[in-house]
Design a protein that fits this description.
The chain is about 30% helix and about 30% strand. By secondary structure, it is of the alpha+beta class. The longest helix is centred in the C-terminal third of the chain and has 16 residues. The N and C termini lie far apart (about 40 Å).
Length: about 250
């Protein structure tokens, strides 16, 4: 697979639910209707050869003027962390690295479908979906992102039901040549019953029927990763280093 396409998708993913300002050094995403969403409000430095002190000062000013906390996401460039960390520290940013692993779907699913689960594609976020999200202590930022995303034709939101009760959810974000799995949540009162496995098994087959895109995802959760591997997802040979930095 072309890792550059994945990187480009990862960097520009927020443009699906946030506005973007192009700068000489990179991109600044923001959504003043969803200020608590980090994914919606952050900058990406794409040119490491720029004046990094000036770039960081500009990022700080941009977000402070909008009443937002400055935050920076990776551009997955070679030597990025080593180059940026001294400047981030100098400007008072807190840096955190994540244990995300990226996976590409390559093999047939070995998961067993739970036939109690009825799966539907939804075109709006209703109260039952909001209940699933809040059961995992996800904030309203997730709900707001989904409400904006679901308006797009190439966003496929799937929900699993048991006797009319929504118990699990997942989404497909699609672009040219690539699709990403997101928003995988099972209601906390319905975990351990195979509903997430059934939904992922269905999602893989659903995607194969509607698209020839490469399908990928990332996760840091061991239980989720175990399900993804059984569903036919294989780790990227070239992993992407995930981190974020925020002011203060």
């Amino acid at each position: 697979m072309d890792i550059k396409k994945v990187i480009d998708f990862e960097i520009n993913f927020p443009s699906q639910f946030a506005d973007v300002v192009i700068k000489p050094y990179g991109k600044l995403f923001y959504n003043l209707d969803n200020t608590i969403s980090h994914d919606s409000n952050h900058g990406v430095i794409i040119d490491l050869s720029c004046d990094l002190n000036q770039a960081l000062s500009d990022i700080e000013s941009f977000y402070h003027e909008k009443g937002l906390s400055p935050r920076i996401y990776p551009a997955f460039l070679q030597g990025e962390e080593e180059t940026l960390k001294p400047f981030l520290e100098k400007h008072g940013f807190t840096y955190q690295k994540y244990d995300n692993l990226y996976f590409l779907w390559q093999e047939d699913s070995k998961l067993i479908f739970n036939h109690k689960l009825e799966i539907k594609r939804l075109l709006e976020i209703d109260d039952q979906i909001i209940e699933i999200i809040r059961s995992e202590d996800k904030g309203d930022w997730t709900i707001n992102v989904l409400k904006r995303n679901i308006q797009r034709e190439r966003f496929h939101f799937l929900a699993g039901y048991v006797q009319g009760k929504a118990v699990a959810m997942a989404s497909l974000n699609m672009t040219e040549g690539l699709s990403r799995v997101d928003d995988v949540i099972t209601h906390k009162n319905y975990r351990g019953q195979g509903y997430c496995s059934a939904l992922i098994h269905y999602l893989v087959d659903y995607h194969r029927r509607i698209s020839e895109n490469l399908l990928y995802l990332y996760s840091a959760e061991p239980k989720a990763i175990k399900i993804y591997r059984k569903a036919g997802f294989v780790e990227f040979k070239e992993q992407l280093s995930s981190w974020s930095a925020w002011f203060g």
